[in-house]
Amino acid sequence: MSTTSTTALLQGVLGASSLVLGACVGVFWQPNRTISAAIMAFGSGTLLCAIAFEITLPAYQNSGFLPLFLGFLLGGILFTGLTEYIDQHGGFLRKPASSRRYLFEHRQEQTSDILNRIAHIEVIQNLSEGEKQAIVPFLKPVFAQPGDIICQEGEPGDHFYMVVNGEAEVIKDRKLVNTMKPGEVFGEMSLLTGEPRSATVTARTPMELYQINQEDFNSVLALSPHMAWAISRSLARRLRFATDSRVAVEHNLDRWRQSLIDQVELDLLLREDSTTLEGLLQRSAPLAIVVGTLIDNIPESAVIGMNVGESHFSWSFLLAVFISNFPEALSSAVGMKQAGTKTMQILGLWMGVVILCGLCAAVGYSLKNNTSELFVSLAQAVAGGAILAMLASTMMPEAYELGGGSVSFSTILGFLLGFLIASTSF
Fold first, then answer.
1. Residue 215 CB: number of other CB atoms within 10 A?
2. The pLDDT value given to residue 411
3. CATH number for domain 121-263, candidates 2.60.120.10, 1.20.1250.20, 3.30.420.10, 3.30.470.10
4. 179, 163 in Cβ contact below 8 A?
5. Nearest alpha-carbon partner for 82 in 423, 382, 308
6. Does the reported pTM lie above 0.85?
7. What's the rounded Cα separation, in Å, for the pair 266 and 292?
8. Above pLDDT 90, what percent of the chain?
9. 10 Å Cβ neighbour count for 246?
C-alpha cells in the first residue's frame, strides 16, 4: 500500500473515530438534550459548508453542472432507498429521528387495521377520527370459543367489551334475555357503577372482541368525550329492552350518564404507547443498526479518500465528519443497549465500523487514481447528495426537535467555522 493510500486509510479512520467515542458516551453516560442538539446542529453546519465548498464546487469546476445534478439526485435516491430498507430490518434505532419515524409509521399501520375492524361498533361510529385513533392503544384483542363465559353474573366487573365478530348469549337469572351481535358492546355498567355483573355473557359462536380494562376505560372516556354519550345511548336501548319500568329506565339512564360525564376530562393529549415501543426495541437488529450507520458514513469516507492529496481539500471536511458522527453513534448505542445488546458487543461493532470507514476511504483514493475525472466528479456528487439527504432527513430535524430554535446559532457557528478552515486552502 502506498504512502498516500495509507494516508487515505488513516484519514478515513480519523473521521469515523468519533463513532467509538460517541458509542462510549452512549453506553456509560447520556448528555442532556440541549448538549446533544448543539453538537448535532454544529456538525450539520460544518457538513453543509463542506458539501458546498469541498464537494460541489470542485465537481462543478471539473465537469460542469449536469454530472453534479445527476450525481446529487442519484445519491439522494440511493441513500433514501437503502436507509428505508435497513430501517425495515431493524436498523431504525441507529438514530432517534429514524426511531420515531419508524414507530410512528408502525403505529399508523396498526391503528388503520384496528380502526377498520371496529368501524361497525356502535359506540365508535360517530366519534371523530382523532378520538378513534386516541383510544386504539387501549384496545386488547380477545378471542372466545362457543361455550366460553366472557363475564359472569354476580362477579365484579373489570372489563368493557366490543364485539367485532360472532354472537353471544346474555343470561340473567338462568334465562336467555338477549343475544349480543357484531357491533354491540357490553360490560360498561359494572365499570361505571362499581356493582357486580348484572348478567352472564356466554359465547354462542367463535368470537373476536376488543377488551378495555377499568383503568383504561376511564382513560378512554377522558380522551373521547363523545364516547360517554355513545355509551349512554347504548345503555338506554338495553335498559328499555330489559325492563318494563320506564321510570326505572330514565332514573338509571340519568345516573349512568352523569357518572360518565363526571369522568370525562377534556384533555385529548395522546399518551406514549410504551408496549409498542418495547416490542420494537426487542425486534431491532444490532447488525442492521451498524449496516445502516455504515451506509451513512460510506459517502463521507469515500469523499475523504478521493480528495487526499488535492490542493483544494482542507481539514474542514474531516472535522465536519468527525463532529457529525459523534451524536449518531451516541444515540445508536443508547438504542442498542435498550434492546439488550451487551456493552462489549456495542463497542466492538463500532470499532469495526471505524475500520471499514478507513477502508472505504482507501477505496475512494484508489477510485480517483484509476478512473476518469468525469467519473470521480460524478462519484463525489453522488456522495454529496447522499450526505445532504442524511442531513435533511435526520440530523437537522432531530437537532431542532431536541433543542428548538436555539440550534440555529449552533448550525451557523458550525458553517462559519467550516468556511474559515476551508478558506485557508483557497
1. 10
2. 92
3. 2.60.120.10
4. no
5. 382
6. no
7. 42
8. 14
9. 10
